[in-house]
Amino acid sequence: MVxxxxxxxxxxxxxxxxxxxxxxxxxxxYFKQPMAETxxxxxxxxxxxxxLNLIQRNVHRVHKRSFNTTxxxxxxxxxxxxxxxxxxxxxxxxxxxxxxxxxxxxxFTSECNNRKNPRLGxxxxxxxxxxxxxxxxxxxxxxxxxxxTLYSGFRLPLVRRVSNQILQVANQIVPLDQDIAHSxxxxxxxLDHDLDLTPQSGSVQTFNxxxxxxETCTRKSPCFPIWIPPNDIRFNNTRGxxxxxxxxxxCGTGELGSFFGHVNIREQLNAVTAFIDSSMVYGSGKxxxxxxxxxxxxxxxxxxxQNYTDNGLEYLPFSSVQSESPCTMNPNxxxxxxxxxxxxxxxxxxGLLSFHILFxxxxxxxxxxxxxxxxxxxxxxxxxxxxxxxxxxHQIITYRDYVPRLIGPAAMQKYLPPYRGYNDSIDPRIANVxxxxxxxxxxxxxxxxxxRFNESYKEHPRYPNLPLHNxxxxxxxxxxxxxxxxxxxxxxxxxAKRQKQNRMVVDELRQHLFELTSRLPLDxxxxxxxxxxxxxxxxxxxxxxxxxxxxxxxxxxxxxVLRNKRLARNLFFLYRTPDNIEPxxxxxxxxxxxxxxxxxxxxxxxxxxxxxxxxGDRFWWENQGVFTASQQQALQKVSFSRLICDNSRIExxxxxxxxxxxxxxxxxxxxxxxxxxxxxxxxxxxxxxxGSVPVVAHAHFSICKSSVRxxxxxxxxxxGGDTITCLSDGQWNSAPPTCTVxxxxxxxxxxxxxxxxxxxxxxKNMLLxxxxxxxDP
Length: 777
Known about the structure:
Layout: H1 2-19, H2 24-32, H3 36-63, H4 69-72, H5 75-85, E1 125-126, H6 159-167, E2 168-169, E3 176-181, H7 182-195, E4 226-227, E5 241-242, E6 269-270, H8 279-282, H9 286-291, H10 350-373, H11 379-415, H12 432-436, E7 449-450, E8 466-467, H13 476-480, H14 485-492, E9 495-497, E10 505-506, H15 507-510, H16 524-534, H17 540-546, H18 555-562, H19 565-575, H20 583-589, H21 600-615, H22 629-635, H23 640-647, E11 652-654, E12 667-669, E13 686-687, E14 691-692, E15 699-704, E16 707-712, E17 716-719, E18 723-725, E19 738-741, H24 749-752, H25 762-773
Parallel strand pairs: 2-10
Antiparallel strand pairs: 1-6, 3-9, 4-5, 7-8, 11-12, 13-14, 15-16, 16-18, 17-19
Helix pairs in contact: 6-16, 7-14, 10-11, 10-14, 10-23, 11-21, 18-19
């Protein structure tokens, strides 16, 4: 049943792509669909959930009464279900390598970051719960699933009604933040994509009867539609609901949670690594990481686009399956496929896409410089060192330039005092409330326009500003309309939207989200509120209590907290009690703390999350042994402005890229912005007391403490062990390996890989025939 629903979903998606008939919900599903390793985890969870639902339904039909599914099954039954569905894989112990090199670099999945609990912070594990979930049935059904159910004595309001009455602001009356640039907002989304991704079900149809969630208002998992209130002007009562898909469950949570050591509570999956490790650049699993690497050379580079450049500067590669690309065509009806990167949300809009391209270039710039400094390094060593440096760049910019402006000095002092080292007892996982509520705060700071500026920071004469919805899934606007530089200048020289209690979410996001066709657009505010209910998040006052803050119970008390009588009355009219207000809505409704951009509740939750991410990360850039003292000193020179200078043709920009200033005030030439000196990464090719490292023909090597590891060039195989160690008596413990040719035609594989697999050039045919007809084994 699950496989059939997955297949129908995929076939339906292909058909819509062929007809260019994608809906807004299709576009949302495009980057929320589980992929690669995540798809395997989600499918296993849905096998199990569907199996248990069938058992319970059939037993209820026969016995005419309800049973807890786990009471109906023996331990042998449970073991069988777990094994057949694949969920037992989640229980298998993770074996962590423990040598000098495995302690030097993160795994792609971040497994083994914490050696005591290897899955903490890894990709494809459950979000952390800081407070117990509140589901309608106690373990799985979303809050508000049944309209008659009462919470704290009252029914929950329709989320679209809340959006209309509390959150709306017209695009034309947007308040501006005179201190914060829109690049600050874009960094928030960029960072969020490093930290969390909640995949939805692998199917957009119900498993039992094949109902399409995009075509029905039936509430049957995974469909959890958003009801449209009467007299909603935007929808003119033409449709009763907006499509919404439940987040995918985690294996062993929900009805069978007790079997896996949990309370019977449905949990949601974080598909990416929790740590600040640039996973949106490199991926959170081996499949995507391998897919986006350049395998034609041994230089540690990321793959680049083979069709287009930005006047010689690199673009991301295109998705390999053009027929499955939902990205819009240019006005000439020429297909520009979606780009591919370490994160599937790369094509969402132009600002995000520009960041992806910028950091692709930065990785390749770092790799080339590291190779120049260390010609003896293999491509793998170069790649991993560049990835490690990139992670440090993101950590430093985030904690030095971003988080303090976000949560203010009081929360910084409370949650993020000076670093004292790694603590393996801290749980670094992303909290469900952080991913589902807290870090969606930036939705109230987004401008409705994408500004594109020329070299003088004026609106570009050829590529004018765009309504935000015209930038969704539109990589052609980068390829055909001036590259990323006009967009980056627009982010730097344009202020963020200022959060105002009566002007929260612009209509571009509330009325036109992913509006590429005339089909029903989505409402981001409603999605946020519905997602909170889907995940069973406790209400506003529960989180105020968690943070040690006063819990308002009346209109007067809520007025005192919000310092806004009208807003307090409107919230009471809808919710009847602050206990029922979703934490995202309550959080963004609070006035900002002094020196920050968040209210007290979100400043608390965000501060706690970033404390856990820093102190619970074994590979944190300041942790002893991760970088040398000279490397740490060099890394502190990094700035977002310098990254733009190094990877674009922008020559003038603000020294502080997150601070808004009208050009030319505060703008400097790139020559005045410090660079990170990579000379601290030049490896001395001697090991004390053994002296110079033995050179091996056709081999690269890297040094880790007193050991040397060799890797043979492509087409060669090692004879002997790959590692030698310097002993205290000044002798190597063994002779180095030798690299002998594996097959003379293997050497031509890099040449073969240069060609597109869809067409065989004459040279490729010649090489293939040579490989096929040779008698050399």
